[in-house]
Amino acid sequence: MSLSREKLVSVGLELLDEHGLEGLSLRKLATELDVQASAIYWHFKNKQELLDEMATAMFRRLLTDTEWPQPRDWRDGLERLGVELRAMLLSRRDGAKMAAGTYLTDDSLLSSMEIPLRFLTEAGFPLRDAVRAFITVYSFTVGFTIEEQAVAGDPRYADTARRSRIDAEKYPLSASAGPEIFGTPDERFEHGLRVIIAGVGAYASEPR
After folding, report:
1. What is the pTM of this model?
2. How far is CA 92 from CA 42, 86, 97, 208, in A?
3. I need a surface site. Which of 96, 100, 149, 156 has the fewest CB within 10 A?
4. What pLDDT, on the 0 to 100 scale, is given for residue 146?
5. Residue 100, CB half-sphere, CA atoms under 13 Å: how many?
6. CB 16 within 8 A of CB 93
7. What is the end-to-end Cα distance of the chain in Å, rounded?
8. Burial class (CB in 10 A: 0-12, 13-18, 19+), 175
9. What distance in Å separates the CA atoms of residue 204 and residue 182, rounded to the nearest whole number?
10. DSSP letter string over 96-133?
């Protein structure tokens, strides 16, 4: 059987959806393809190299399949960046955890920062502030989505009865906080993203 890195990445992503990040291994990939493990190690020395390539494939699709029109303003641009990135990470089981800290193997993707950096600097941000704004939105989105995917489907987090056992007389705020803590992820993400973007505008040096 002739194997390519593209084929291995494709099947690796399928196994990620089926087994999760912890259940993915090079040996499981070899079993799925009915080949010897050595055939996999010819392309990837270890699991991290496979994850790097899988994350690169995901980011490549995000950057090539997504239309990036000129934003109405820099706030709109940053919000779209966060929303599209989260959607990409959610498209795969453990997608955010898998992508975090990976090394992009396609050097052409390094230029992807040009899009947000351009609309930020054209709005009046110094390059330093533009870079920090981009990284802050990126880091928030990845971190939020890691937590979101970690608790998704866990019945313990749907146990409203547990929170009802809080002594409301002694801890009225904690007792009432449940709907806010466990509200829909979409609402919490959008709120957090907008708070960050508002802070970017307040902190940056003279954006228009």
Report:
1. 0.89
2. 26, 11, 10, 37
3. 156
4. 97
5. 16
6. yes
7. 58
8. middle
9. 32
10. HHHHTT-----GGGGGGGHHHHHHHHHTT--HHHHHHH
